[in-house]
Amino acid sequence: MHEISVLSKAVDMVEQIATNQNARAIEYMRLEVGELTGYLPTFFEEYFPIVTEDRPLFSHCKLMLDKKVGEGLCMDCNALYNVMREEGVCPKCGSRNKTILSGQEFKLIDIGVV
Ligand SMILES: [Zn+2]
What we know:
Helix content is 26%, strand content 32%. The protein is an alpha+beta fold and 114 residues long. Zinc ion binds next to loops.
């Protein structure tokens, strides 16, 4: 359920930007969602119509989601691996010692206004 509050914050931000630019409508907004954030993209899709319901600027707005893979660097053998797929364990040496390189981001990348 965290998705609805972070999504609503992102929508507020987009609305603010569009208002500052005197936009008539927002065509799309693009969010980057890392898979290690724990946010499920399907929830964003599901909540988007609810969050934007009473906001006329969003009446034809498309939500675009860029999913980012969770990538880890093993601190013991320097292997790069997919953290979700390997469940946090280095497939090469079995270590859990790692630096997360990507997958923790949640941010607004781009919006399109007219
Ligand atoms: Zn390793």
